[in-house]
C-alpha cells in the first residue's frame, strides 16, 4: 500500500489524445492540491494587503500585494506543468477559514499577518518537499527535477518572511516599520510581470 495514495479527483485524468503521461498520478494529485494551497496563500495575502491599506501608511500593503502576486505565479507554474503533461483537472476550492483570519481575532496587530505568513510559507515548503519525495518514490524524476525551481523560490519566500518578522524585534513604531517595508523590503523584491 502506498502511504501517499490519495483519492483521485473524479474530473482529473490524462487527456484521451495523449493516452499516457510522464507525470505520475500520485504526483499529479499532490500538484493539484498544491495549486489550491498557492491560491489560498494568494487570497490570504490579498486580504492582509487590504487590511494593511487601511491600518498602515503604505509599505506593508504593497508588500502583501506583491506576495499575493508571487503566490498566483506559483499556482500558474504548476498549472502550466500539469497541462504540459496533458493532465486534465479542476482547480481546488479555497479555504475561507484561512482567508478570513484577520476577522477571527478581536484585534489584529500589524505584526500578526507576518506571523501567519511565515507559518503558511513553512507549511507550503513542507508540502512541496512532500511532492518531491513522492516524485522520487514513484521514479517521476522529471517532476522531481522541475520542483527544484519551486523549492528555491520557497526558500526565498521563507527567508523574506523571517526578515519581515525580524523588523518587529527591533521596533514596534508603525511608521518606522512601514518606511522599512517601503524602502528596503520592496526595493529587494523583483518587479512582477
Could you characterize the architecture of this molecule?
- This protein is mostly helical and 193 residues long.
- Helix content is 70%, strand content 2%.
- The chain has seven helices and two strands; from the N terminus they run E-H-H-E-H-H-H-H-H.
- It has helices spanning 25-55, 59-84, 96-99, 101-104, 112-137, 141-170, 174-188; strands at 13-14, 87-88.
- It has a two-stranded antiparallel ribbon.
- The protein is elongated.
- It starts with 12 loop residues before the first strand and ends in a 5-residue tail after the last helix.
- Residues 1-8 have low confidence and may be disordered.
Output the keywords.
193 residues; mainly alpha; two-stranded antiparallel sheet; 7 helices; 2 strands; 70% helix; disordered N terminus
Amino acid at each position: 500500500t502506498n502511504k501517499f495514495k490519495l483519492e483521485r479527483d473524479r474530473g482529473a485524468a490524462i487527456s484521451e489524445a495523449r493516452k499516457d503521461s510522464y507525470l505520475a498520478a500520485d504526483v499529479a494529485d499532490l500538484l493539484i492540491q498544491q495549486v489550491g494551497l498557492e491560491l489560498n496563500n494568494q487570497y490570504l495575502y490579498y486580504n492582509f494587503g487590504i487590511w494593511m491599506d487601511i491600518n498602515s501608511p503604505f509599505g506593508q500593503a504593497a508588500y502583501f500585494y506583491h506576495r499575493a502576486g508571487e503566490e498566483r505565479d506559483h499556482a500558474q507554474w504548476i498549472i502550466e506543468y500539469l497541462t504540459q503533461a496533458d493532465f486534465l483537472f479542476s482547480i481546488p476550492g479555497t479555504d475561507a477559514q484561512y482567508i478570513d483570519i484577520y476577522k477571527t481575532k478581536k484585534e489584529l496587530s500589524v505584526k500578526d499577518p507576518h506571523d501567519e505568513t511565515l507559518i503558511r510559507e513553512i507549511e507550503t515548503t513542507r508540502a512541496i518537499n512532500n511532492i518531491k519525495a513522492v516524485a522520487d518514490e514513484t521514479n517521476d524524476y522529471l517532476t522531481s527535477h522541475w520542483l527544484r525551481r519551486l523549492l528555491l523560490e520557497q526558500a526565498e519566500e521563507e527567508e523574506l518572511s523571517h526578515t519581515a518578522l525580524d523588523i518587529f524585534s527591533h521596533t514596534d513604531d508603525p511608521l518606522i516599520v512601514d518606511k522599512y517595508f517601503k524602502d528596503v523590503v520592496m526595493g529587494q523584491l523583483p518587479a512582477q510581470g
